[in-house]
Amino acid sequence: MHAGHIALADSFMAKMIEQCLGDPEPNQPARWADYTEAIFRHGGFKRGTGQAPELIRPDQHSPESLLKRLDAARRRWERLSLDPNLIEQCRATRPHFAFGDLKPADWTRLCAIHNAHHLRIIEDIRQGKAG
Prior knowledge:
131 residues, mainly alpha, Four Helix Bundle (Hemerythrin (Met), subunit A), two-stranded antiparallel ribbon, 2 strands, 57% helix, globular
């Protein structure tokens, strides 16, 4: 479930970055939710404090579709990594349902934080520490 969620979320976050880069003019200033800065500064968030929107819940997708989504996300991130300066310099934003209006650099940071969060959960499950 967590790996599937990562695949769906990574694809979605890459899509948000692609949309920003496709229309790099700022459509509004990056306005974060009250707690976004603390999460970015801390580099993580507590387990159980949020809930994934319907769009990125893996229980609604077959394993085959998740593998396709993971491959699509990997290809998207590979393309985005070709010129990281574009991500850093772009000021366009796209809204996140919980964290506010994010620039491409913010989306990239969120992706890293989000993946690390779920990878820790997966490791705990593997070690029998979490259910």
